[in-house]
Design goal:
The strands form three sheets. An eight-stranded parallel β-barrel has the order 3-4-5-6-8-10-11-12, surrounded by four helices. Strands 1-2 form a two-stranded antiparallel sheet. A two-stranded antiparallel ribbon has the order 7-9. The chain folds into two domains: about 350 residues, TIM Barrel (Alpha-Beta Barrel); about 60 residues, no CATH class. Strand 11, helix 11 and strand 12 form a beta-alpha-beta unit. The chain has 16 helices and twelve strands. Helix content is about 45%, strand content about 10%. It starts with about 40 loop residues before the first strand and ends with a helix. One nickel (II) ion (NI) binds next to helix 9.
C-alpha cells in the first residue's frame, strides 16, 4: 500500500508504527499474519480484492457507552477544547490511524466528522470546513472515501423517523443533512453514498400509516438520487438493510425486502445494497445468505464487515473474526466477480472493556486477516477443489434435453407430465452436505 503514515501536529497513537505483513510465523500482535496487500490471488492483489475501509463512527466517536453506562475510553482528541478544535484533532487521529493500518478507504457520517448544529447555516459551514480538511488529508496520503452518509437517527428530532417521519417539517430537515452530505461525498470523490434507514420503521403499527411512510421514503430517495446526479455524483447510492433496532420494525428489513422496494420505486438502476453481517443475522439469515440474495439480484454494492454472536439478539458490531463467515462471504464475492466500486467497511467496534489505544489496531488486524484468509480459501476452493464441479453436477439434468428446454421456457406443464411418465420414478441423489463441509474444513486448515 502506498499510503504514507500521516502524523499531524500531534501523534495520537505513539509507539505504534505502520503495520507490517510478517506472515503466519510472526508472534508480533501488531503485524498482519495473512493480509499481504500486494500478494496476488488470481488476477488481483489482496488489496484490490478486499478494498478495506475504516469507519469513523465506531473508531473515533464511540468511546464505549452502552445503555448502562458512559464511555470507558478517554480519547485525547475529545479533550482539546471547543467542538471544532476537537473535530480538527479527531480528523488527524483518524488519518494517522488509517495510514498506519494501511487501508485504502474510510467512511463517515456528517456529524462524526463535523460538529452538529440546529441552525442549518451553521451545520453546513461546520461540515464544509471539515470536508476541506479531509480533502487536504486525502491528497496528502492517497486515502479515498468509500462512502459518505448522513446521521438521521441520533438527534432527538428524528425520534419518529427521518424521510418516514409523520411530520413534514422533519422530513425537510432531514434533506438538509442529505443534501450537504451528497455534496461532501462529491467534493471528496466518494465512490458511494449510503442510506442506512436509522429510524425509518415503526415502534407500533397502531399509530403508523405504513403505506404512506414507505411512499415518502421512495419520494425522498428519488429526490436524493436526482440531486446527486445533478451535481455530478456518478457512484452508487446504497441502501443498508437491517430488520430492527432501533425501531421494532425497520422498513429496509433485509436484502430481499430492500430489492423489492428499489424495484417498486424505479430506483434499482442507481441504488445497490450495502450488506452488513450482523444485520443479516438479526434478520434470521446468515451473512452469506443476504450477500447471495443481493448478488443474485445484481444489487451487491458494498459490505459492512462485522459479526454478532449467537447469544445476544442485537447488533453487537463485533469485528469479524469467524473464518466460516469470511470464507462464505468471499465465495459469494468471487463468484460475483468482485465488489466493483464497493468495499469491506469495518462497521465494528472494540468491546467496551477494550480500553488501550492499541486495541483498535488489534481489532482491525484481526478482521483484515480473517477476510484475507477467507479470500485465500474461497479462491482455492473455486480454482482447485471439486466444489464448483460438485455444485454444477447437481444441476446437470438441466444442461441438456428436456431439462434445458424447461429452463428455456420451451415446455408446458403437460410436457413435464409426459416426461415424468417416460423417465420413471426419479432415482435418489444424495445432497452430500457433509462432504461439502469436510471439503471447506480441509481447505481452511491446510
Ligand atoms: C447501524 C448501521 C450504521 C450504518 C451507517 O446499525 O450499521 O452504522 O452503517 O449509518
Ligand atoms: Ni452499517
Ligand atoms: Ni449495524
Amino acid at each position: 500500500m502506498s499510503t504514507q503514515a500521516f502524523i499531524g501536529a500531534r501523534e495520537f497513537f505513539p509507539g505504534i508504527g505502520t503495520i507490517p505483513f510478517e506472515g503466519r510465523e510472526s508472534d508480533n500482535p501488531l503485524a498482519f499474519k495473512v493480509y499481504d496487500a500486494d500478494k496476488r490471488i488470481g488476477g488481483k492483489t489482496m488489496a484490490e480484492h478486499l478494498r478495506f475501509a475504516v469507519c469513523y463512527w465506531h473508531s473515533f466517536c464511540n468511546a464505549g457507552h452502552d445503555p448502562f453506562g458512559p464511555g470507558t475510553r478517554h480519547y485525547p482528541w475529545d479533550q482539546v477544547g471547543a467542538p471544532m478544535a476537537n473535530a480538527e484533532a479527531k480528523i488527524d487521529a483518524a488519518f494517522e490511524f488509517f495510514t498506519k493500518l494501511g487501508v485504502p478507504y474510510y467512511c463517515f457520517h456528517d456529524v462524526d466528522m463535523a460538529p452538529d448544529a440546529d441552525d442549518v447555516g451553521q451545520f453546513e459551514r461546520n461540515l464544509k470546513h471539515m470536508v476541506g480538511l479531509a480533502k487536504e488529508r486525502q491528497q496528502a496520503t492517497g486515502m479515498k472515501l468509500l462512502w459518505g452518509t448522513a446521521n438521521l437517527f441520533s438527534h432527538p428530532r428524528y425520534m419518529n423517523g427521518a424521510a418516514t417521519n409523520p411530520d413534514f417539517n422533519v422530513v425537510a430537515r432531514a434533506a438538509v443533512q442529505v443534501k450537504a452530505m451528497i455534496e461532501a461525498t462529491v467534493e471528496l470523490g466518494g465512490e458511494n453514498y449510503v442510506f442506512w434507514g436509522g429510524r425509518e420503521g415503526y415502534a407500533s403499527l397502531y399509530n403508523t400509516d405504513m403505506k404512506r411512510e414507505l411512499a415518502h421514503m421512495g419520494r425522498f430517495l428519488t429526490m436524493a438520487r436526482d440531486y446527486g446526479r445533478s451535481i455530478g455524483f456518478e457512484g452508487s447510492f446504497l441502501i443498508e438493510p437491517k430488520p430492527m433496532e432501533p425501531m421494532k420494525h425497520q422498513y429496509d428489513f433485509d436484502a430481499a425486502t430492500s430489492a423489492a422496494f428499489l424495484r417498486e420505486h424505479g430506483l434499482d438502476k442507481d441504488f445497490k445494497l450495502n450488506i452488513e453481517g450482523n444485520h443479516a443475522t438479526l434478520a434470521g439469515h446468515t451473512f452469506e445468505h443476504d450477500l447471495q440474495v443481493a448478488a443474485d439480484a445484481g444489487l451487491l454494492g458494498s459490505i459492512d464487515a462485522n459479526m454478532g454472536n449467537p447469544q445476544n439478539g442485537w447488533d453487537t458490531d463485533q469485528f469479524p473474526v469467524n473464518l466460516y463467515d469470511t470464507v462464505g462471504a468471499m465465495l459469494v464475492l468471487l463468484r460475483n466477480g468482485g465488489l466493483g466500486a464497493g468495499g469491506l467497511n469495518f462497521d465494528a467496534k472494540v468491546r467496551r472493556e477494550s480500553t488501550d489505544p492499541a486495541d483498535l489496531f488489534l481489532a482491525h488486524i484481526g478482521g483484515m486477516d480473517a477476510f484475507a484468509r477467507g479470500l485465500e480459501v474461497a479462491h482455492a476452493l473455486i480454482e482447485s477443489s471439486p466444489l464448483e464441479g460438485w455444485r454444477g453436477e447437481r444441476y446437470a439434468s438441466f444442461d441438456q434435453g428436456n431439462g434445458q428446454r424447461f429452463e428455456n421456457g420451451e415446455l408446458s406443464l403437460a410436457d413435464l407430465r409426459d416426461h415424468a411418465e417416460a423417465a420413471g420414478e426419479p432415482k435418489q441423489t444424495s445432497g452430500r452436505q457433509e462432504a461439502y463441509e469436510n471439503l471447506i474444513n480441509r481447505y481452511l486448515v491446510r
